Automatic annotation (TrEMBL):
Residues annotated as domain AFP-like: 301-359
Database matches in CDD domains: SAF_NeuB_like (cd11615)
Name of this chain's protein: Sialic acid synthase
SMART domains: SAF
Amino acid sequence: MPAEFELCPGRKIGGSNPCFIIAEIGQNHQGDIEIAKKMIRMAKDCGADCAKFQKSEIEHRFTKQALERPYTSPHAWGPTYGAHKHHLEFSHQQYKELQQFANDIGIFFTASGMDEMAVEFLHEISVLFFKVASADTNNIPYLEKTAKKEKLCIDGADWSSHGDGMQTMETMRCVYQTVKKHNPSFTFLQCTSAYPLPLEHVNLSLIPEFQKEFPDIPIRYSGHETGIRVSVAAVALGAKVLERHVTLDKSWKGSDHSASLEPAELAELVRAIRTVEMAMGSPIKQMLPCEASCHSKLGKSVVARKPLKKGEILALDMLTVKVAEPHGVSPENIFKLVGKKITVDLEKDATITDAMIKG
């Protein structure tokens, strides 16, 4: 199977298709649905393809002890980790409202299902594809259940992407085999789970390694670094889906904001990616129409180094290369002229054309 499939209705990824850009809102909405809607609209206005959230069924994702532990971070929304997570979690009805809002303004909508019950809910509301977070990449039972889900809005095929942050290539081979037997339409992303991500740990070199290891699936990149340059480079290296966290204000409370892009940065990232995609062009090396004018003025040809007599046998010291008028034999063919007979008299600097050569 080629590394191309329909991720969302009418929108393919992989192959020569444009990079699919996901604005990861996550939980940067501060637990406020109106802020969440503003962020969806911002993602749309900036040119992103998809707005993405994170959905948890908190008691299914965390143990009671994990939820009861004190949470004293400056980013905390409550005295315990459970209170913090509950503050940031939207209800089922609110997710349906956000999904409808995204549909109304014309941007794709999805969410990471952070536990199996969250996946069931997202399946019920027919999200267009699932995102599997790094923490669940090696959660094989979860992966199998997620991979089996049918998404009718994309012709009966479910799609799961797998963050590989905190995982090894051996793990990713296991994930590939696990998912492949249930669903051929999925992709891997290169991801390093640190917020914000130091540049020396981005490891963009893994993108071509993933392409070699898994040639039949598209490869993508999830960036947690600051700025946009690395993400643009990831697309140039072949990332077919790009995910970046977004925010309306990096100074807001929350651990993800510092690794997120504000609206102006997201808009510039989208413009830069589309510019790079246009510049990638064709892998076929040939003279292009836009080069014709320059070639006409400055393209070089083989010319006579000295006067030549009709019937002479050409030697290399009789020939040189210059910008000439008219154009003649191309410089790369100069050695093919050696030993051939010239059929006309030529002055010094006269252009040599194919019609003047015998044999």
